[in-house]
Amino acid sequence: MVLPFFGKKPAPGAGPAGNARGSSVPDAATELSPRDFPDDAPHALAQYADLVEVREVAAGLGTVYEEAAVLYANGNVGAAEAVLEAALGSSSGHAGEGVWMMLLDLYRLSGQRQRFETRVVDYATRFERSPPPWQDLSAAPARERPHSRPLVALSGSLSGQAAAQFEQIAIIAKRSGVIRIDLGHLRSVDETGCAMFRQRLNELAAERVKVSLLKCARLADMLFGQVRVGRAEGRDGWLLLLEMLQYTGEQDRFEQLAVDYAITFEESPPSWEAKVEQEAQSTAALEAVAAANDGFSLDGEVTGATADIMRKLTEYAAERQQVEVDCTGLRRMDFVSAGMLFNALADLKTQGKQVALKNVNAMVAALLRVMSVDQVAQVALRA
User: Fold this and answer.
1) Residue 36's pLDDT is what?
2) In 225-344, which ranges are E strands?
3) Could you give the 3-state DSSP secondary structure of residue 256?
4) What is the distance, to the nearest Å, from the Cα of residue 232 to the centroid of all Cα atoms in its chain?
5) Which is nearest to 148 in space by CA: 281, 282, 290, 278?
6) Are 138 and 121 a contacting pair, CB within 8 Å?
7) 27: which residues sit within 8 A by CB, 6+ positions away?
8) N or C, which end of the chain has less CB nearby within 10 Å?
9) Are 103 and 64 in contact (CB under 8 A)?
10) Burial of residue 325 (number of CB atoms within 10 Å: 0-12, 13-18, 19+)
């Protein structure tokens, strides 16, 4: 049985009559067959290791695949197209479906619809299957990301000095229609701060902005130390405390405080309204939900100048075992970035994480294969 992937290399110092390793090694005219290998195959292979060389079958197509991928990665669209066209026009006719998909995607990426329409007919005839549909990817618009809820944190003293923070909160909240406010970093609170905070909350409610208050228990505890039953002062502090108890879900404590409020201010207190489901979700949980909705994507052209995207990918993957990266909007990746991506994904794989790159165009997928990215992550082509 002949091993067609291998060819003999002459042994160092071997002449026509023999070789340096002795007569047990076949001479240059001998083809290796299973009879040449004893039962101890690993030992036999080691014996012949420096006497054989590997030659890739259909190496020409492998070269075309790699050359076109690297040319496109470097921004040489015309040269990449010429290489692929030449491979498909070769008289040998051995170009596989991968090369065809690269050329069709290159036409879509460069907006060449007429050439695409001509080639898809040849593709359908050759492979007897429906070709990919035309889609102009030459100037793909920025993909609209799902809406996420911005998070801001109040820190230090909740006082008149927090006016700038409240202004910023109002701007962000009105722009997005939703906001999360983390109260866990507050260190003190006074009546002026309570009045300003309540005013902002009422304004946002009137404009139908959805507000989530996080870690309200800390602020509630500070306010409890300041209210005095029977002393009709600090009304905003009382009312803000009652609202915080609705977020922490402490209805019994709320009802008792409501009675104290009625006695102290001689007016009806606010009614109980459970808001505990918002407080129950920690900041981390809410951020995880937002991230799950947003997902992670590679878009446009990723080059060495935008290498920071790899750091963001690593941060995104930190809290996940299954990591999906949407590459629908990714048009091109250069050689340097592909190498950096390999390093990042290799590190994630050593951590036991599974990464999937989805909806990758065929030109970028070819580069990822050349760079062995497909060895450390799943790479799935787009339709």
Assistant:
1) 37
2) 296-297, 300-302, 322-326, 330-333
3) helix
4) 55
5) 290
6) no
7) 18, 19
8) C
9) no
10) buried
- Residue-wise pLDDT for 276-329, tens only, equals 544 334 444 444 444 444 578 898 888 875 557 888 888 888 888 999 999 998
Cβ neighbours for 202, distance < 8 A, ≥ 6 positions apart:
none
Residues 214 and 186: their CA atoms lie apart, in Å, by 12
Could you tell me the two tokens for 21?
A: 């390793």
User: Looking at the DSSP assignment, which residues form a beta bridge with residue 356?
Assistant: 324, 378
For the stretch 201-232, pLDDT in tens is 889 888 888 888 888 888 999 998 898 988 88
How far apart, in whole angstroms, are the C-alpha atoms of residue 235 and residue 288?
Answer: 37
Return the percent helix, strand and coil in the chain, to nearest 5: 50, 15, 35
Q: Which residue type does 62 have?
A: G
| Residue 238 to residue 228: CA distance in whole angstroms | 9
DSSP symbol at 102: H
Residue 157 near residue 189 (C-beta atoms within 8 A)? yes
Which residues are CB-neighbours of 271 under 8 A, at least 6 positions away?
Answer: none
pTM of the model: 0.49
Which amino acid belongs to residue 242? Answer: L
Q: Return the H-helix or E-strand segment holding 378.
A: strand 378-381
Q: Is 13 exposed, middle or buried (0-12, 13-18, 19+ CB in 10 A)?
A: exposed
Rounded to 5 degrees, what angle do the CA atoms 229, 234, 262 make? 45
Number of helices (H), then strands (E), belonging to the chain: the values are 15, 11
Helix or strand run (H / E) with residue 52: strand 52-54
> DSSP code of 129?
S
How is residue 285 written in tokens? 């949980």
Distance CA 154, CA 116 (A): 56
Largest CA distance in the chain: 118
